[in-house]
Design goal:
By secondary structure, the chain is of the alpha+beta class. The chain has five helices and seven strands, in the order βαααβββαβαββ. The longest helix has 15 residues. The radius of gyration is 14 Å and the shape is globular. 28% of the residues are buried.
Length: 152
């Protein structure tokens, strides 16, 4: 199986939404802020020096993650999702490594994320890449009960 990571292309916007809605609806629900993000990908993420990466497995979109620029030194890692049929193939590791490298190339000193403690595989992934729990900042997400950050 050929695996590769690519940057944002508008033709994959619906895949980004599909992959994220799948896990949101499985564990929580789609919140207003999620819909706002989905409806404004280009303006809120891409045009503001962020990026959305896609993992392709034999040219099929298997996973995605967003890097949202917060300020000149900080990015938020958000909306990481891997299609159920591709889980267990370590694709989230590739997405994470690509995201961290992207932040470093853009001179960031910190990446943060918000998540939920029931998402144990995700939390294990973040810990594997040296994200540590920090006090929660104010967030737009009702489901968020943990904030983690990585100092670069």
């Amino acid at each position: 199986m050929e695996i590769k990571i690519i940057g944002y292309n508008p033709q994959y916007k619906n895949d980004f939404i599909r992959l994220n809605k799948a896990w949101l609806e499985e564990y929580f629900y789609v919140e207003p802020h999620d819909l706002e993000t989905f409806n404004n990908i280009e303006n809120d993420i891409i045009a503001k020096e962020g990026e959305i990466f896609f993992c392709l497995a034999d040219n099929e979109i298997a996973g995605t993650v967003a890097m949202i620029k917060v300020d000149g030194k900080t990015y938020e890692l958000a909306k990481m999702a891997v299609d159920k049929k591709f889980q267990g193939m370590k694709l989230s590791n590739l997405l994470m490594e690509t995201s961290i490298e992207f932040a470093k190339q853009h001179n960031a000193t910190k990446i943060f994320l918000v998540s939920n403690r029931i998402l144990k595989p995700a939390l294990n992934l973040y810990s594997k890449y040296n994200f540590v729990e920090v006090p929660m900042d104010e967030t737009d997400y009702d489901r968020a009960d943990i904030q983690m950050e990585l100092t670069l």
